[in-house]
Structures are given as C-alpha cells and as structure tokens.
C-alpha cells in the first residue's frame, strides 16, 4: 500500500493493530505471544521475508506495541512483521538470560512454522530497541542459552539485524554488567562477533546516556574486522529512544527509510521506501 502523505501514514501507524496474535511458547504457566502483521492479501502459501522485533525496557518491562508502527510499515512493504512478547523481571521475576532464551524460541518458532505463516524460512530477520536490541543480537550470537527441551536443530540465527540504540556491550563498564556478571562473556554481543554474525544496521542518538557512541564505533570496528557489514547511523542531539514514533515522527520516518533501504540492499525488499523523506 503506497500512501502519499506522511501525515496519513503517521495516523495509520499510531492506530496499528496486528492481523493475528498467536502463542509461540508456554513456560512456567506463562504464555508468550507473537503479534503478527501481514502484507496485503497475504496467503499461507506465500514465501515472504519475516522480521521479529523485541521491545525495549531494560529487561525489566516494555510492551510489544512499541514496534507496532515498524511492523505495520514493513508489512505494507511486503514483509511479515512480528512484535514478540518475552519474559521480563517486573512481571516474571526473570533475568536477562530468560529474555535471550525467549528471543531464540520466538525465532525458532517462526522458522518452524514458516509454511503456515507464508514465510520463507531462509529469510527470517530480527530487530529491537535497547534491551530488545540486545535480545535480537544475543539470540543471533550467544552460544547456549536455549530453552531446556527445545529443538536446537532449528536455527535461531536471523539473516540480518535491525537494531535501535541496542544494548550490545555487557562487559565490565557496559550496560547491565552487574546483572549478567556470571555469564557476561556468553551473553554480550560485543564479545561474540565472528564471521557468521548477521549483517546489521544500527541507529543511535549521539546524546544517548545508556549506549555511548564510542561503544557503537567499537562494535562497528569489530564487525569490520570480522568481515561483516555494520551500517551505523548516528543522530546528533538525540537521546535514548529517539526513534519511536510516539517520541518523534520525523526520526521514526528517517530511521524507517534507512531500514527499508538496508533491507532492500540485502534483497528482502524491492522498490523505493513508501515513506516520504
């Protein structure tokens, strides 16, 4: 669907609702769900790319509705776009380790059910903001941290990552180190980069008080050393969470246009972005 006015698109996104909500995991009497947005006239027999987003909230809280606008737009461009629930400490008394377990479970469920979802199992992507960016990246890179009993023969590694001010350094001095101190080398994306790391686009405000610019530049350098693409977009004067539609329509639009172009360059989208610059 191509809409000519950004104002129309903004209203469309703010009132976005998923086409389907389905349970992907049940653990400890908790049902975790995927909020699914389908392209227009989508059918189960289609084989479209899919992207799974994980909300931010410091592993403590947050809601999948954060990424409804992103999902609605990408669905309008032909991607099955999903916003995932995962366990957080405020509701479930869990640790970051369980967040990553759930991220891996969500990606495995989408790949295992690709035939029912109208998804190409070889074109599954992931993204997220802040701690949700960490969940997406760690699901791709952390060794182990799998839900006990889960079929680990099904890959949980996405083909690409779309990360908004992501928490990706959990080492000493990095975000949340004390909360993951016993296993930080395992869960920290910064410390698990290799040649198999998915190509990644990162959006970061230069005044982010949680994820310093120097961390993003170090991450980019390590990705380059590993021979992996890392597109880093820095935004002067912007703070943590600047990309959310509720915070800035302009920055939401700018970051989604760059996301669109990144995914197009990898072959997951065709044509020009339908959000006007």
TrEMBL record:
Keywords per UniProt: Hydrolase
Any one Pfam family match given in the protein's UniProt record, by short name: DLH
Family designation: Belongs to the 'GDXG' lipolytic enzyme family.
Entry superkingdom: Bacteria
Coiled coil start-end: none
SUPFAM superfamilies: alpha/beta-Hydrolases (SSF53474)
Limits of the BD-FAE-like domain: 35-146
One annotated GO molecular function: triacylglycerol lipase activity
Membrane-spanning residues: none
UniProt-listed Gene3D superfamilies: alpha/beta hydrolase
Residues of the Dienelactone hydrolase domain: 185-252
Protein name: Alpha/beta hydrolase fold domain-containing protein
Signal peptide per UniProt: none
């Amino acid at each position: 669907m191509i809409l000519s006015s950004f104002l129309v698109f903004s209203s469309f996104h703010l009132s976005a609702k998923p086409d389907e909500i389905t349970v992907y995991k049940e653990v400890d009497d908790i049902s975790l769900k995927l909020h699914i947005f389908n392209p227009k006239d989508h059918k189960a027999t289609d084989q479209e790319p899919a992207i799974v987003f994980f909300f931010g909230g410091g592993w403590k809280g947050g809601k999948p509705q954060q990424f409804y606008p992103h999902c609605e737009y990408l669905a309008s461009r032909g991607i099955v776009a999903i916003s995932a629930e995962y366990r957080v400490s405020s509701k479930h008394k869990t640790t970051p380790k369980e967040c990553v377990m759930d991220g891996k479970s969500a990606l495995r469920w989408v790949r295992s059910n690709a035939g029912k979802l109208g998804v190409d199992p070889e074109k599954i992507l992931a993204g997220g903001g802040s701690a949700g960016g960490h969940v997406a990246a760690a699901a791709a890179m952390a060794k182990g941290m799998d839900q006990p009993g889960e079929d680990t023969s099904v890959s949980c590694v996405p083909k690409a990552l779309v990360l908004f001010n992501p928490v990706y350094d959990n080492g000493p001095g990095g975000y949340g180190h004390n909360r993951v101190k016993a296993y930080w080398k395992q869960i920290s994306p910064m410390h698990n980069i290799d040649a198999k790391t998915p190509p990644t686009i990162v959006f970061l405000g230069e005044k982010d008080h949680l994820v310093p610019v120097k961390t993003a530049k170090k991450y980019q350098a390590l990705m380059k050393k590993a021979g992996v693409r890392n597109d880093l977009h820095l935004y002067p004067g912007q703070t943590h969470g600047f990309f959310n539609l509720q915070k800035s329509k302009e920055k939401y639009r700018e970051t989604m246009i760059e996301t669109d172009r990144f995914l197009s360059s990898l072959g997951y989208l065709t044509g020009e972005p339908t959000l006007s610059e």
